[in-house]
Amino acid sequence: MTALILGGATLTSLGDGAATFTALLAGDAGPVPLAHGDPGRLRVTRGHHVPDGDPNTPFRASGWLTRCVREALDASAVDPARTRVACVVGSGLRELAAVELLDPRAVPVQRLHFAHAVRRAAPEIGEVVTVSNACSAGGHALALAQDMVELGDADAVVVAATDAMTESMLAMIGRVADEPTDRVRPFDAGRTGVLLGEGAAAFVIVAEGSHRPDQRGAALARVLATGLSCDAHHETAPSAEGIGRAMRDAYHRAGRRPRETGLVLAHGTGTALNDPTECAALRDVLVADGGDPLITGVKGAVGHTSGVAALTSLDVALRCLRTGRVPPITGLRTPLPEGKDLRLLIGEPAPTPGGLVQLDAFGFGGVNAVTLLERP
Amino acid sequence: MTGLVVTGWSSITAAGVGEAPPLEPLPAARVTDLFEEALPEESAPVLTGFDVRAHLGRKGTGSYDRATALATTACGEALKAGSVEVNDATRGRIGVVLGTTVGSFRSTSDYSRDTLVQEKPYLVNPLLFPNTVMNCAAGQAAIRHGLKGVNSTVAGGPLAFHQALRYAANALERGYADVMLVGCVEEYSPHRAWQTAAARRSGPTGEGTAVFVVERADAARRPGSTVQAEVLAVATAFGWGDAAADALAGCVLRVLREAGVTAGEVTAVATGDAQEYEPAARALGHRPERVTVSELYGQCDAATGGLSLGALLGRRLGGVALLTARTRDGGVGAALVRGPS
């Protein structure tokens, strides 16, 4: 069984989905001076902020979520008052940024769940489940959303994600880097680590076959399957074996072959460990099956959007399918040795290849989610 | 959802590690002796003397926060109780889903606080950062016990266990795993104690964890496994304010319908708080025995649902029991569980 994406909305440091895609195609978007905390003390000097004023305003993540859920419902012409709609929210840090304000009166604990934020967008939405699976939360949310519509638990599911950067996460990346990172260079030989992004995204998905012709527009993509795995290896270090299992699980579920994939939206964090590990898994699974996909990634332009990362990539993937153009990997100059034989897209946009699209998302705790899409 | 069977379980409360939650109030400990920080209460039903090293050894456990230590220990005990063999042939098919509120509130807050008060460069410990990510306990349990199947954390506060059961049912039905550990955890800390007090909730703050080995009711099970209970149906819904009671009653009717069980068969209702009982009894049309976790074990938030089920299984539940849950933002849930015949 498969599901269809009817509509969506995205927010990144570069703006909405259209603005983000335009900037990705231009290939020159980058971080701005850090507006959180004290950059000198954090040893993080740059970031990819959503430019919406004071970053110390509580509940920014909830606000973005509300906005994206509303826009996604409008874009898909699904009315929660007339049909059973559930919502699955992925998030790594949830409202930790609000907790960091250290004012218990300002942060009632129930507002740390996103039910409130979702219902501000659409009070008729029934179930709201928050999956808190670190940086693969959006991919896990997508897996659950597809299951729910295919099993008939809901007529439509809004799969969403949101994350705002936090001072504690900034302090952590500052402590693990040798020197402050100037920009994220995914898959680059000279990569120096990650910078944080933030934002939200929401997509409305329905089971294929339930898609009514009166729903506005054509579906944006068919979601074939999401493969899931846990490394059970290390809390923070990735494992090529674990990531490879998630990829194989995705192809097995979809009943497709890895060689059918034309485009990969990589996790590509620009860290010492992720990029060679992801290259190894792509080689073990896709290349070993005779595949030679084009590989791109977005974190050089929008930073690491934590639990939103999978859905940030999803929006870009949908635009690649629609416009026929794939943006290059912003920030990549010289590929890392482990990626020399892979088709990492450098410099200029390329035509969108045919075949399947693979989305990668990996998180702390060794939790991996790999999603396969195709043109509807 | 597909029905589930429970083939092993374990819990940790002030009653002890691996002891079933008792059907009586847990002993209260003087918490003011346990923490340097000021507390809003002198005593609470917390587990004193719990040392994760006694259960899992010293290696790898040094960075665990209390929630992670409790959940990881309970996962190991549940695997043992269910005689689950974890080897290279099975580990990829065994998953974990844990319910939480915010992970370890203490880890998150302390780490965030360090970023604000430590001298430059911020002397936060990157090794402790994973503790602030809300899926820390599930990830550490997988690492410790070598469980490579789907691994998820559902953040739903008092509703989290019901949501975790549904997540597990889905993962099993869709073939992501053959065996799921489903659990929930909440640790006692000054942070949570003050949060409970600030929210003006009655009773002390509690803590605990319960983890259940679940498999599909309709599939071949592991050789040698014993069914200790069946989870017949789980439903969750939402109702703002006064509508919450009707939403909960609606959930009860839904699980009865899905399970094909008559209201008369329900012999016990385990509620998170006492207010859940009236709507449940109204939907059932009679007043079965009530067990209320918050009255016995304090405010256990995300651990509530699992401790309810543990309390019912610990007394060798006969017949069918209803487990209800409610959050302060209008989320409600109901589950029907049948004891061994």
UniProtKB/TrEMBL annotation, chain A:
Keyword Transmembrane helix in annotation: no
Documented EC number(s): 2.3.1.179
SMART domains: PKS_KS (SM00825)
SUPFAM superfamilies the record matches: Thiolase-like
Source organism superkingdom: Bacteria
GO molecular function, one term: 3-oxoacyl-[acyl-carrier-protein] synthase activity
InterPro entries in alphabetical order: Beta-ketoacyl_synthase (IPR000794), Ketoacyl_synth_AS (IPR018201), Ketoacyl_synth_C (IPR014031), Ketoacyl_synth_N (IPR014030), PKS_Beta-ketoAc_synthase_dom (IPR020841), Thiolase-like (IPR016039)
Protein name, as recorded: 3-oxoacyl-[acyl-carrier-protein] synthase II
Native organism taxonomy: Bacteria, Bacillati, Actinomycetota, Actinomycetes, Streptosporangiales
TrEMBL record, chain B:
Ranges of residues in domain Beta-ketoacyl synthase-like N-terminal: 62-200
Cited Gene3D superfamilies: 3.40.47.10
Keyword Calcium in annotation: no
Keyword entries, A-Z: Acyltransferase, Transferase
One example of a Gene Ontology biological process annotation: fatty acid biosynthetic process
InterPro entries according to UniProt: Beta-ketoacyl_synthase, Ketoacyl_synth_N, Thiolase-like
Gene Ontology molecular functions: 3-oxoacyl-[acyl-carrier-protein] synthase activity
EC code: 2.3.1.179
Protein name: 3-oxoacyl-[acyl-carrier-protein] synthase II
